[in-house]
Amino acid sequence: MTPTRLNRYLARRGVASRRGADRLIGEGRVTVNGVAAVLGTAVDPEGDRVAVDGRVVDVTPRSETVMLNKPRGVVSTARDPQGRRTVMSLLDGTAHAPGLAPVGRLDADSRGLLLLSSDGDLAHRLTHPRYGVVKRYRVTLDRPASDADLERLVRGAELEDGWARAVSARRPDPRVPAVVEVEMGEGRRREVRRLCSTLGMEVRDLVRVGFGPLRLGSLEEGGWRRLTATELRALRACVGGDGTATREAAPLPRPARSRGRRAAASGEGRRR
Asked: Does a structural domain hold residue 272?
């Protein structure tokens, strides 16, 4: 069988995310055939014996992925050092698969669709900007959004951590112009709120209603459910996790800068 990187092997079996697996390997807690593994190790999934802290890892990939409708005020982490309520408290014992953890995050004051998965490889792909998985949000603003406002959201703006823009922005109901539906190809911290604020619009409420091919639908707030086999296949397909090739997302275009700004950015305007 084709060798696979050890961190991916562990992630596919719900031990940890790829990054978490690298930490375990770096701490010397992982062995392959009785020998301490090192970062970058490749293993034969069928022939090698992998253990973590002395316990052999099941060779059969097993994972669980669930959808949760996160309420406002709940943090999207497995544990919180400040003692705040976490999304894990919303799950009953039947959903506590080994390694189950939030896929990305929703701000504490935001609501809606949050995925939790014990498949570290899938979680990595769903959150990595390289794959450009689109998230859909229903945003209530402090004022009606004009056509020009929607165009500005798609054009984008410079934030403190780089350029940000919406993939699309529209008013789903013209009778309620302060509610817009925004699609984003990235998931940076409070990105939608910061983008709106930069453009002179404050967010009063934010609900994530879509994640890639998935839709929140009628799932009650605070409730959760396992993804169906069809939903899992669609989710894996959108990031190339079904064995098919996936084209990387194109970089987000930025508006052309003036020559003076280009010179300043490249250092051409500096004294030599």
From this structure: no
Percent of the chain with pLDDT over 90: 63
Q: Tell me the per-residue pLDDT of 112-146, one tens digit each, with 9 for 90 and over.
A: 999 999 888 899 899 988 898 999 999 999 999 99
Cα torsion angle, 101, 104, 105, 111, sign: negative
Sheet holding 55-56, edge to edge: 35-36, 30-32, 50-52, 55-56
The catalytic residues are: 107
- Considering the domain architecture, whether residues 12 and 78 belong to the same structural domain is answered as no
Domain check: are 112 and 19 in the same one? no
pLDDT of 247 reads: 36
List, in order, residues 6 or more apart from 104 with CB less than 8 Å away: 76, 114, 115, 126, 127, 187
How many structural domains comprise the chain?
A: 2
Verdict on whether the full-model pTM lies above 0.85 = no
